[in-house]
Amino acid sequence: MDRPDELLSNGPQAERLHRFAHDIRNRIAGMHQVLQQLAADTDRAGLKELAEFGEQQQFKALREVEELLDDLGVVRHLYEMPCSTLALGTVVRRAMGLVTHRLDRKQQAIDMQVREGVLVQGHEEQLVELVAALLSNASKFSVAGSTVHVSQSEDDGNVILHIRDEGVGLTPGDVGMVFQRYAWLSSRSTAGEAQGRSTLARAREWARAMRGDLKASSEGAGQGSTFSLTLRAADLRKDA
Amino acid sequence: MKKAIIIEDEMIISFGYRLQLESLGYDVLGTARSSEEAETLLTEMQPDIIIMDIYLKGDKTGLELAQEIHAKQEIPILFLTASTRPDIVTAIRQLKGCHYLSKPINSDSLEDVLMRFAQN
To answer: Is the minimum CB–CB distance between B87 and chain A shorter than 8 Å?
Structure first.
């Protein structure tokens, strides 16, 4: 990922913009808390829809802040993370351990087809977090009893980890926005789980900071989604 | 029941965290609005986890307070922050036993991180 030519990240303007964004996010977080409580404590007809409208407005406001920071070149992510050689299977198994509670609750299974001995370059803790975030996302947007499929392929010196769900899928419009912070997508979680709307954006930033990438694809609404995480190979199929 | 304390200067946000933590089965021992209040609270209480903002009222930042706490005892600290400054995120990552979530926080993300702390 190239660094923009003119960075404001070290200047007083960027410092002020970071502070501004921080304060706005805090105000919105406060309103978010109020709305959540109002919506949680009532069954009154129409109020849940009103709360969702309020949430949508919050995310639009947060999105406006992000676009301003983007336009002004204010850096909010790491460009590079220190990487080491990692066994992909171990990373995936650790990530699975972090989302067991979520999968168990919806009686979902993981079909894990990652070969032992596949080595990749990555930041261990961050890569585990990243894969866990993708598994958690797959669980949230899939119905109870479904399966999340985890597989791996190789391409041009890279290893690609595919996380495919059988869930609500993504419309073409959603695919284009899924990595934007606080974008309002048409897809909804299947059991009322909260949707952070910045997790996937951060996941892609982490992937890129490890000199990899993260892409999303879907055949459309109701057709499930696949998130493909590209990582640099260290020594493919050591055991082959 | 796991015990938590909250260090956050915004009352409404602190209240929201309390409700979320209680719904996840945590007992919130107390809340502090500044680094000084937090230090007093920590002399009186022994939480299993600390939920803390980065920018606190008082003389110390959350990062400074976390280092002081960890010099005395290894209590897991979860930073909940509205900041996306890379230097802040890096500083949190470098602190052992610390994690962070970006505001606004949702209960699912909070649950995921608390489960992670519990496993570790």
So the answer is: no
